[in-house]
Amino acid sequence: MRPTKLVISAFGPYADRTVIDLDKLGANGLYLISGDTGAGKTTLFDAITYALFGRASGESRDDAKLFRCLNAKPETPTLVDLTFVYAGREYRVVRNPEYERPKARGEGFTKEPASVTFYYPDASGKQGPTSRSVSKEKEVAAVVQEIIGIDRDQFTKIAMIAQGDFMKVLLSSTDERKKIFRRIFKTDKFNNLQEELKKRAAEIEKLCSGSESAANTLVAQVQCSGTSANAAELERQKNLATQKQVSDWQGVCDLVQALLAEDGESLQKLKAEADESSRRLADMDKELGRAQNVERTRESFKKASGDLETLLPKLEPLKAAKAAAEGKQPERDQLQEQITTLRNSLPEYDKLESYRSDAVKKEIECKNLKGLLQKNHEDFDSLKANIELLEKDFKDLGDAGAKKQELLAQLEKLSARQEDLQKVGKNVKELSTLGEAFESAKKAYVDADKAYQEKQAEYEAKNRAFLNEQAGIMAEALAENEPCPVCGSTHHPHKACKSVDAPSQAELEQLKKALSGLESDRSDKSGLASQAKGKFEEKQAAVQALVQELFGECSLEDARERGNGEYAENREKMNVLTSAKTEEERREKRKAFLEKTIPEKRTELEKLQAAAIGLEKQISGLSAEVESSKKAAEDLSKKLPFENKTEAEKQIREIQAKLDESKRELEKATAAFTECEKQVNELKASKSTLASQLEGAPEYDLVALQASREQAAAAHNALAHSQNEVSARLAQNRNVLEQIGKTVGALGEQLRRRGWIKNLSDTANGGLSGQGKVMLETYVQASYFDRIVNRANIRFRILSNGQYELVRRIEAANNRSQSGLDLNVLDHSSGRQRDVKTLSGGESFLASLSLALGLADEVQSSAGGIQLDTMFVDEGFGSLDDESLKLAINTLQGLAGENRLVGIISHVNELEHKIDKIVRVKKDENKISRVTIEV
User: Fold this and answer.
1) Which residues are CB-neighbours of 2 under 8 A, at least 6 positions away?
2) Predicted structure pTM score
3) CA-CA distance, 670 to 320, in Å (whole number)?
4) Positive or negative, the Cα torsion across 654, 656, 657, 661?
5) How far is the C-alpha of 622 from the C-alpha of 613, rounded, in Å?
6) Which strands make up the sheet holding 822-827, listed edge to edge?
7) Model confidence over 671-686: pLDDT tens digits?
8) d(CA 131, CA 255)
9) DSSP-based helix, strand, coil % in the chain, nearest 5
10) Which residues neighbour 683 within 8 Å (Cβ) at sequence distance 6 or greater?
11) pLDDT on residue 651
12) Cβ atoms within 10 Å, residue 169
């Protein structure tokens, strides 16, 4: 893969659209990317990486939000356009990050979304109008991966030896180098396997520990009676379980079986004793029940006799009270008849209220109509007076509007004159401005001509001095009797001499250039002065013609004074005429208004007069209706006993209350007598029944019977409690025995699996006792590292003049740290190995360069023989002496060969004398980066 063209726009420090024709560098050899720090050298590789993979080459710069150049104009788009050749075919990819740009319509900014387009070559293998393209991010990523054959991480390790990155590879520990190789060689699957084995070992360890703890916990749950023969053995086993030291689980199970047999035999005895106790308790309950029934019957007979003696004296008085209440029935009938009569008269009271209400309502209505009639008379008189005033006003406006047209004509004439006067003033002002511009241009020309004349005199003087100097130089070489190269004379009595003040040819050329600039400036200012003069004279002629038309023959100054005076006078006249016109228009509008309003007012007056007649008729009719309603109400009132319906209803309520009280008295007396009679009859029947039940009943001692029963119940409860304790212990121990059997059975298989899983995990994670601490991933990476070191030593031996060779250290620095990827350097001058950190700065760079090139070779080989025709080496050459620098350049030249182009990114000036092709990056005065290619 070889880039042939790179276009950068508003990307990094490149504010403008920058086109870099990388094809000028050719297809092989070395070239230098030179420029000051921060100019944007590394940004070129960032742009190539971003175009291909959507990310920059360095992790610290890999943020798409930072790609937009802060110095770029808002309308300049941010993008990278890369054209590259792979296997003889030309591809192109255009990519832009998300950034803010000005809105196409309106003000403000909007977000330009990130996008990418990949272009295939056309049928000719080049880019053209028919090139097919894809524009989805995933599709472009797949296409780039398919064509180039590597991903972004591999590309940055193969094609870019980034500044500082491979010094980390050289000086890293095993743990640090392992992380670097994991990313490059994708060995994370081996690390994942290590972690999975470690996880499974921890899980089986936890499972075994849990099973053992569960079994020990179950032993603590075993129970036995205090009198058991196995109590001491059970206590010993529980102590072992607490300390997690149980070794004979079968002995534990046998012990629990013995305890179960003991409790089973005890339970059988307790059941037999409990059955006999239950039978005796049942017989005692029957006897006690019979005694209690006889005692309760005697108590009931005694109570019934007492209650009957209390009720019999009350029965006769209640019977007499009932008869007295029944005797008041005629009085109640009379009250009921009064209520019925009053209720029948209630509709007549409603009729009376209707007559009275109707009379009041019509009186109010009649009063309201009289008020309206009074208002009508007042409105009539007011309107009549208003009409008389309007008719007088109309008569006074007889000639309104007659002078309006005359006033308008006078105003239009004055307005036209004012416009002409304004036109004169405006043109005079413009003429003054043009005059000032002409004077300024004329002065500028005079100054420019003076400067030119002075510079011309200086040039002529120095030119003569220069020519004399040349003659003096030639004269120095003349010899007597030898011909002059100018005139041919062999005799030279008056030789020309060199002038002390003669200028150099470069100074004379610079002076001539300055003179040419002044001549051009004088010519420009002469043209501007002529143009200003023409405009002034043209405007002056136009103003003179306008002044003569308005004022006749007079000067411009007189015209300005006369125009200002007349303009002010006309303005006053126009104000007076405008006021008169406004007043005339007001009188005209008033007259038209009165012509319309007076007839309307007369019509309104006639309507008021007609309305008054109608109101007088309504008032007369309502007055007659009021008198009729009052007469009917008076006649009906004389026939009724009460003034109104409210008093009649009050009388009804009072009579009803007396009737209700009499009825309640009757109901109360009847209920009291009935209830007392019922209770007497029930007590007599109950007493007879209870007497028959007590015939022949024996006498019982209830206290003695209850005491015997309580003693028997206490003994029975004690047997039941013991039985429950033994049953619960049996159930608990059976369950514990079953759980111990299951747990111990599973624990054996778990311990077997723990053995081989832990051994496998320790092997993969470098944790075997007495063995080297090399993890599985480290072991795989060591294979890659050996090949990298072998490839690196091919170049490192050359770069170090055969003194040094890199060696992978096998042993760890200490027993606690991981080993396998540490690096030593073999110093052939001493024959001893030492840590690579002991190398000097220049030696470290050569070692890291060799290691980086070896890593690039290995990654390219691992990627399946991909074709990368371009490589970049970023910085580090400043630490080398001349000899080492020469060796490094020769090594990279050899790396380039005939088919690879190697770019060195550096600001070391010495490299410019050693490398012919240069990509120069500079920042201009606006801090914007520019790129030029020198071949």
Assistant:
1) 27, 84, 85, 86, 869, 870, 901
2) 0.42
3) 10
4) positive
5) 15
6) 804-809, 822-827, 832-835
7) 988 888 888 888 888 8
8) 90
9) 70, 10, 20
10) 304, 307, 308, 311
11) 85
12) 21
What pLDDT, on a 0 to 100 scale, did the predictor assign at position 821?
A: 78
Cα–Cα distances in Å, from 14 out to 301, 631, 909?
124, 116, 23
- The answer to whether residues 778 and 766 touch, using CB atoms and an 8 Å cutoff, is yes
Please report which residue ranges of 552-644 form alpha helices under DSSP H: 556-639
CA triplet 699, 704, 709: central angle to 5 degrees?
A: 115
Identify which of 935, 905, 841, 877 has the alpha carbon closest to the alpha carbon of residue 38: 905
Give the closest residue to 888 by CA, choosing from 27, 28, 32: 32
Could you tell me the CA-to-CA distances from 449 to 444, 511, 518, 521, 671 in Å, in that order? 9, 17, 8, 9, 148
CA distance linking residue 238 with residue 252, whole number of Å = 10
Residue among 931, 859, 806, 912 nearest 160 (CA):
859
Q: For CA atoms 778, 780, 783, 787, give the dihedral sign.
A: negative
Among 523, 522, 568, 560, CA closest to 544: 560
Res 141: pLDDT = 92
Question: In the Cβ-directed half-sphere of 122, how many Cα atoms lie within 13 Å?
Answer: 7
DSSP per position, 91-134: EEEEEE--EEEE-SSSSSEEEEPPEEEEE---TTSS--TT--EE
Instruction: Please provide residue 116's backbone torsions phi and psi, each rounded to the nearest 5 degrees.
Output: -150, 145
- Diameter of the chain measured on Cα atoms: 199
pLDDT of residue 868: 66
Q: HEC profile for 160-174?
A: EECCCHHHHHHHCCH
φ, ψ at 554 (rounded to 5°):
-165, 160
How many Cβ atoms are within 10 Å of 129's Cβ, its own excluded? 5
pLDDT beneath 70, residues of the chain: 58-65, 158, 162-170, 470-479, 481, 483-492, 494-501, 747-748, 770-772, 811-819, 860, 863-868, 875-880, 895-898
pLDDT value at position 410?
84
The tens digit of pLDDT for each residue in 506-541 reads 788 888 888 888 888 888 888 888 888 888 888 878
Pair of tokens at residue 793: 């030593």
Amino acid at 2: R
Q: Which helix (H) or strand (E) holds 220?
A: helix 188-220
